[in-house]
Amino acid sequence: MKAISIQNPFAHWIMTGEKTIEVRSWNTEHRGDLLICSSAAPKIPAMISGHALCIVSLDKVTQFRKTHLEAACMDEMPESGSFAWHLSNVRIVKPFPVKGKLNFYYVDDELIEVIDDGNLSPEEADDVFMKYIAPVSYKYGKIGCYYLEKTSGDLIRWRVGQASLEYMSKGTAEWKLTEPTSEYEKAFYDGEGNCELEQITDKKAHKILDDWGVASPYGEDDEIKL
Predict the structure, then answer these.
(1) Closest CA to 171 of 155, 151, 149
(2) Which one, out of 57, 70, 202, 216, has a CA that is 20 to 30 A from the CA of 13?
(3) Which CATH superfamily is domain 2-136 in?
(4) pTM of this prediction?
(5) By the 8 A CB rule, do 209 and 218 touch?
């Protein structure tokens, strides 16, 4: 199958259906199936690098216009003369390593196994994600990032592969899982709720935990509770 490598987060966003237009400086006459592979770099928590991710249909190619920005997951216009590759019909494949190349290249069809053709139930799609996608995501099971809740002063952290957030308050030395309806969950996942989360560096988070008397490695080696 004809394939192309795309850097994350864009390759990941194509796989999830958020990005339906790919931007290229060159045109192509190819139409139909195209295997989307993620480049080896950069490595981003919760995303897969250096693997085949999904098959899409390349329906048409047009000149890139400002109206394409949202579908391309971009805030600014690319260089003049860029092309918009219109993508549809995402089919997620079982991830497997691919050594990317410039422009198009070919991947053996026998390596490609579709695991989600877009017709799975939400429960089935979740099972596929946890079985095939999450385990090969960068930093799976590790701390992805820390946040500070500005009003309460609570420390919140998110682990790659774990849906629920964890939080700790001053005066305690135990990470607790948030509830799906908590204000922290609403703020983190939906940008809503009655709290304000500020992302902070690991170094700053560890300094706070030191001040609170929490022993290193700060519970980072605790088993994920799904």
Answers:
(1) 155
(2) 202
(3) Hypothetical protein. (2.30.130.30)
(4) 0.79
(5) yes
